[in-house]
């Protein structure tokens, strides 16, 4: 039995939908499938505007442009995140101010954010790790009292929610990822979610190379021209077609992943009870999407040994982010506020187990047995 870490999602309709793009002679951006995906996101999240992008990285870059992030600004975010969370803002000249995480959810510690706010702070960027929501009520309250924007990095949060509100639709802006490792994929891709309509026109312009081309195609202007600084953030409609085949059955995919997640959680509970490992924590009011299943080992050495052991059993398990503040670019473009009590320590304990639609019950059980075998020995 050989079990990979991830298999990109596939429903069987992708090629049919891509063929429809080819037959319609519309394979560039903003075709019919792009519009269907945008509409699906708007309907499922309640945001005023959703725009499919070439990546979550680009969605976050668009957010930075929309907020006019510039040199001298500061943006508060966790260090335990993917590089794109910081890249989007440091590209605009801002300083990344890293705040420690909560050891239970691996999300930014909302109790530490306010002390990190300065007169230069422009935005807070919470990252919903593993599709489990940050404590958004507290974060939104801090932002409101200090006049700050909130940009949700919900790359892993499609179909997850906080107190009934879709992740990515709570802050001023939200960013989704549809990378091949995500629950719903278009290979490379993402989306920008806008809660406030006042950003919609400018977002369309930035996404279309700085032009009002979208308005032209809607017949609102008789010609399109260069309006603002922008770039090409439109994915091919063929990519959107691949994605839409999954969004059509999003609930089915979500339920299948939750079943796998629950099997892991129940099967490994005895190891947690014995003090061998820690399992994910889902706070009250948070509905996760089974984006990943991870365990926490005693330390980095035990994690390495377990990864090797599982590899011998033909199971691909991986660790996750190296904290950004410890990286060369993190030291160059950011600073860590306060004490690193948990970010580094907890990041060295996390081990991610295979998680994808199509992981069979037999495979699921085999992985659990192998983890238990490691701890017995």
In the CATH hierarchy, what is the architecture of the largest domain at level 2?
3-Layer(aba) Sandwich
CATH homologous superfamily heading of the largest domain: Type I PLP-dependent aspartate aminotransferase-like (Major domain)
Helicity, as a percent range: 25-40%
The stretches of 5 or more residues where confidence is low (pLDDT under 50) are none
> Number of helix segments?
15
- Mean pLDDT over the residues: 97
The total count of strands amounts to 13
Biggest sheet statistics: 8 strands, mixed
Provide a short characterization of the protein structure:
With about 375 residues, the chain is α/β, with parallel strands linked by helices. It folds into two domains: about 15-245, Aspartate Aminotransferase, domain 2 (3-Layer(aba) Sandwich); about 250-375, Alpha-Beta Complex (Aspartate Aminotransferase, domain 1), CATH 3.90.1150.10.
Word description of this protein:
The strands form 3 sheets. This protein has an 8-stranded mixed beta sheet, with helices on both faces. It has helices at 14-23, 32-45, 56-66, 83-90, 110-116, 136-146, 200-207, 213-217, 237-247, 250-267, 269-273, 300-312, 328-333, 343-347, 361-376; strands spanning 49-53, 74-78, 95-99, 121-124, 149-153, 161-162, 165-166, 173-177, 190-194, 286-287, 293-296, 334-336, 350-353. The protein is globular and about 75 Å long. By secondary structure, the chain is α/β, with parallel strands linked by helices. It has 2 domains: 14-247, Aspartate Aminotransferase, domain 2 (3-Layer(aba) Sandwich); 250-376, Alpha-Beta Complex (Aspartate Aminotransferase, domain 1). The chain is built from 15 helices and 13 strands. Helix 5 (110-116) packs parallel to helix 6.
């Amino acid at each position: 039995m050989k079990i990979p870490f991830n298999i990109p999602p596939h429903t069987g309709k992708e090629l049919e939908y891509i063929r429809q793009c080819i037959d319609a002679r519309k394979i560039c951006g903003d075709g019919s499938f792009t519009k269907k995906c945008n509409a699906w996101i708007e309907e499922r999240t309640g945001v005023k505007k959703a725009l499919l992008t070439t990546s979550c990285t680009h969605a976050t870059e668009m957010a930075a442009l929309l907020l006019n992030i510039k040199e001298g600004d500061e943006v508060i975010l966790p260090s335990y995140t993917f590089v794109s969370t910081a890249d989007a803002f440091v590209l605009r000249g801002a300083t990344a101010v890293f705040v420690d995480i909560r050891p239970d959810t691996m999300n930014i510690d909302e109790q530490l954010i306010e002390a990190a706010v300065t007169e230069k702070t422009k935005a807070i960027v919470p990252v919903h790790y593993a599709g489990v929501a940050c404590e958004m009520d507290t974060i939104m309250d801090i932002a409101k009292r200090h006049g700050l924007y909130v940009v949700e990095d919900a790359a892993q949060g499609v179909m997850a929610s906080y107190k009934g509100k879709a992740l990515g639709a709570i802050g001023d802006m939200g960013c989704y990822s549809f990378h091949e490792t995500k629950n719903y994929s278009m290979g490379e891709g993402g989306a920008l979610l806008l809660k406030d309509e006042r950003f919609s026109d400018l977002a369309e312009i930035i996404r279309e190379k700085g032009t009002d081309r979208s308005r032209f195609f809607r017949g609102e202007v008789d010609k399109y021209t260069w309006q603002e600084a922008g770039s090409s953030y439109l994915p091919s409609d063929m990519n959107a077609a691949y994605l839409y085949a999954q969004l059509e059955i999003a609930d089915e995919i979500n339920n299948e992943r939750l079943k796998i997640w629950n099997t892991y959680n129940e099967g490994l509970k005895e190891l947690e009870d014995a003090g061998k490992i820690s399992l994910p924590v889902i706070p009250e009011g948070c509905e996760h999407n089974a984006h990943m299943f991870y365990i926490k080992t005693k330390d980095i050495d035990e994690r390495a040994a377990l990864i090797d052991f599982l590899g011998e059993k033909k199971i691909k398990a991986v660790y996750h982010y190296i904290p950004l503040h410890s990286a060369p670019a993190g030291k160059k473009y950011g600073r860590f506020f306060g004490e690193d009590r948990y970010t580094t320590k907890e990041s060295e304990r996390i081990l991610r187990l295979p998680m994808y639609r199509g992981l069979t019950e037999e495979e699921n059980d085999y992985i659990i047995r192998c983890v238990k075998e490691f701890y017995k020995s």
